[in-house]
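Quick question, first post here. What does this chain look like in 3D?
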Amino acid sequence: MVVHAAHARPGNVAPVHLNHDLEQIFLALSDPARLAAVRLLRKKPLRSSDVAAALSLSRPLMSRHLRVLRRAGLVEEKSEDDDARVRMYRLRPQPFAELRSWLDEVEAFWKDQLQVFKSHAERKHGKGVARSPKLRA
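> Answer (accepted):
Ran it through. Tokens below.
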């Protein structure tokens, strides 16, 4: 949840509360190896061994990273029909849509805040006021 400028009191920083799912998404994406794995999986589903090879990581380490991404809901795994030992990983669109929605809320909040600040500055100093000579350099 984001508190928008219309609900924030002047002088106070509006609190930004993340739901548990978004917290898990951010935690999962905070690791460079997991973020790189997501970038690879954007192109097409891959086996964990293919992701590990592409990122020059050991298979056990990549397996742990994919587990974190799976628990955060960012990826899903599926066994191949002809070989149950082979796991294909693909991105799930829903968590990324939730992330995009949250980012849109944050962007709207700051857009509103900056518009309020601009209006305040224009009321106080007038439009097009020349900058201080100290600031021109």
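The beta strands are 46-47, 75-79, 87-91.
Residues 93-125 form the longest helix (33 residues).
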